[in-house]
Amino acid sequence: MNVRQWGRRNGISVCILRVPGIYSKERISLSRLSMPVLQESDDVYTNHIHAEDLARVAVKALQCGANGRIYNVSDDSSLKMGDYFDFLAGRFGLPLPLRLPRDELRNVVPESMYSFMAESRRLDNSRMKKELGIVPGYPRISDGLA
Prior knowledge:
Layout: H1 3-10, E1 16-18, E2 21-23, E3 37-38, E4 45-46, E5 48-50, H2 51-64, E6 70-72, E7 79-80, H3 81-91, E8 99-100, H4 102-105, H5 111-117, H6 126-132, H7 141-144
Parallel strand pairs: 1-6, 2-5, 3-8
Antiparallel strand pairs: 4-7
């Protein structure tokens, strides 16, 4: 049984927040920058949300989220994962991560990290904006880490 079925069965209004990489100045893992990332031709898109924006969305969803709805909670950036890590390295004065082809990267990063790097997704946050009335306070990662 999934969450929406559970809610219907128990007469409880449920909405689901689909949340990607949560970041804030306090949540950045700079140690991750020591691992290589995919070369540009193999790189995948990733989505992010600032922790403060996520909190605002959660409160708004509790107040007026439509029963049974799924909301993609993300900012407005459209970044590939390697570009995200390059940005972090530049922002914090660290060396850029090494870029490797997919077949080489698989052999040098943990399987859980490789699995994350193998999935490319671009979330559409228009339902979050339209139905919950949320516009990200930090629309791009550069805004959230300024």
